[in-house]
Amino acid sequence: MNATEQRSILKRLSDYAIVGQKLFWQRIIIYGAALGLAGFYYDHRVALFFLIAIGICEIYDTVLMRHILATAKSKTMKPRKLFYNLYAGTILSAITISSFCIAIAIQQGTGGGHFLPMFLLVSASIFATMNNHQFIPVLVSRLAIYVSALLYIAIRDVWIVRPPITSEIWLNLFTILFVLGFVLELARTFILGYSVLLKNRIALQIEHKNALAASEAKTRFLATVSHELRTPLTSIKGALDLIDVGSAGEVPPKMTRLLGIARSNSSRLIDLVGDLLLLQSSDAGKFTLNLEMVDMGSLVTANIHNFQPYAKTLNVEVDVDIPEGKFFVLGDKKRLGQVVMNLLSNAAKFSETGGVVRVALSTADENIVLSVADQGIGIPEGSETQIFEEFGQIDSSDQRKFQGTGLGLSISKRIVEGHGGSIEYDSELGTGTTFKVTLKSAG
Fold first, then answer.
1. Rounded Cα gap, residues 93 and 105, in angstroms
2. How many CA atoms lie within 13 A of 275 on its CB side?
3. Kind of pairing, strands 432-440 and 367-373?
C-alpha cells in the first residue's frame, strides 16, 4: 500500500467515524420512536428485546468510532483490523434492524401493506447511502441486508396468500422493486461524489504540504544567504568609508565619484539584506519589537530631515504638517522610523519631477494617524494584495520605470501590524496616493 492509498484509507475511516458520531442522537430518536410504536401497537416484549439488541449495536459502534478517531490522531491506526471491526458492526446492526422490521411485519399478518416496517427499511437504506458511502463494501453489505429484508417481507406475503396478479399484494412487491432501484441509484451517486471529493481533498492536502515545504525552504535560503552576505558587505562598506576619509591615503579626484557610487550601492545592499532578515524572522515567528514611549512628531521630523537629500535628487519637495503637541505611541523607535522612511521613499519615487510629498500627523479617537501623500501616478484598483505582498510590483517588467525590491510596503505592513496598528491607502490614477498608518495613542 503506497502513501496515497494509506492516506485515502485513513481519511475514509476518519470521515466514517465523524459522520457516525454526529448522527448518534438522530439514530437514537428514530430507533426510539419506532420501538415505541411497535411496543404500543404490537408485542411490547418483542420491542423490548430489540431495544436491548439495538442498544448493544450502538454501544459497539460508539466505542469503534471513538477508537478510530483516537488512533487516527495518534497515527497508530491499523486499517486492516479496523475494517474487520467495521464490517462486523455493520452486519450486526443491519441484521438487528432488519430482524426488527421483519418481526413487525410478521405480527401485522399478510396483506396489510406493512407500511411501518417497509418505511423503516427504506429509510435505513437511504440513510446508509447518504452516510456510509466512504467504503463500498460496507455500504453494499448494509444495503444487501436491508434489501433482503424488504424482499422477504413482500415475497412472503405473495407466497402465503398466492393472490392474483391484480392484487395490491403484488403491487406492494413491484413498488418495493421500484424503490430499490431508486436507492441503488442514490447509492451510486453518493459513492461517485464522495470519491471525487476525497480525491480533490487529498490533492489539496498534498499541494498544501508541498507549499509549506517550499515556503520553509525559501525561508531557510533567505536566512542563510542574508547572514552570509551581511558580514562581507559590512566589511566592504567599512573599507570604502575608511578610503573615503583618507585613512589609506589621499583619494585621487577621479576616484571620488566611483567611491561614492560604491558606498551608495553597498549601503543599498546592506539595507536589502536587513529587509530580508526581517522578513525571515517574521515568517519564522521570531519578529520582536523593542517597545518604548516614542514621540511620533519628533520621529517623523527626524526622518524627514534625513530624507531631504534623497528628495532633492528626485526634485521632490516635502511639505510637513505636524501640529504642536505630543504624539506618543508605545513602539519600536527604529522599526517605526523604518516605516516612515519607506513611505517617504515610495512617495518620492512615484512622484513626478517637481512634485510635493505631504506628510501629516493627526489624531482620530484614541489613535494617531500618519499620512504620507504624493502627487504621483496612483495605484490601479484591485491592487491591495499586490501592493503589500513581498516583492510586489505593479509593474514587474524588466523595463519598468520605477526600480526597487518591492519589500518596503510589505515590511512596513508587518511592522505596523506588529504594533497592533493598520496601514491602508487611498489612490486615484494620475492624481496620487495617500498612505495612512494608524497606531494606538499612548499619550
1. 19
2. 21
3. antiparallel
Cα 168-171-173 angle, rounded to 5 deg: 120
Residue type for 99, please?
A: S
Average pLDDT over the chain, rounded to an integer: 79
| DSSP β-bridge partners for residue 320 | 359
- C-alpha–C-alpha distance, residues 437 and 293, integer Å: 17
Rounded to two decimals, the pTM is 0.48
Range 351-355 average pLDDT: 82
Report the C-alpha gap between 369 and 197 in whole angstroms.
Answer: 48
Q: Pick left, alpha or beta for residue 63 (phi over 0 → left; psi -120 to 50 → alpha; otherwise beta).
A: alpha
Amino acid at 288: T
How many Cβ atoms are within 10 Å of 251's Cβ, its own excluded?
A: 15
User: Which positions ≥6 away from 247 have C-beta within 8 Å?
Assistant: none
What spatial distance separates the first Cα and last Cα of the chain, rounded to whole Å?
A: 65
- Tens of pLDDT, residue by residue over 391-410, are 555 544 444 344 545 677 88
In whole angstroms, give the CA distance from residue 291 to residue 305.
Answer: 24
> How far apart are the C-alpha atoms of 145 and 138, rounded to whole Å?
11
- The conformation of residue 254, written as its DSSP 8-state character, comes to H
C-alpha cell recorded at residue 115? 407500511
How many Cβ atoms sit within 10 Å of the Cβ of residue 301?
A: 15
Residue whose C-alpha cell is 460496507: 138
pLDDT tens digits along 161-220 = 888 888 888 888 888 888 888 888 877 787 777 677 767 777 777 788 887 777 777 667
Check residue 419 and give its pLDDT.
Answer: 86
Taking residue 192's Cβ as centre, other Cβ atoms within 10 Å add up to 11
Strand-pair partners of 424: 436
Rg value, the chain, Cα: 37
Q: Give the amino acid at 203.
A: A
Residue type, 67: H
Query: Is the pLDDT assigned to residue 276 strictly greater than 50?
Result: yes
β-pair partners for 293: 330
For residue 337, give Cα distances in angstroms to 298, 320, 342, 367, 370. 10, 16, 9, 18, 12
User: Which residues lie across from 433 on neighbouring strands?
Assistant: 427
Secondary structure (3-state) at 372 = strand
Length of the chain: 443
φ/ψ of residue 178, rounded to 5: -65, -45
- Across the strands, what pairs with 295? 328
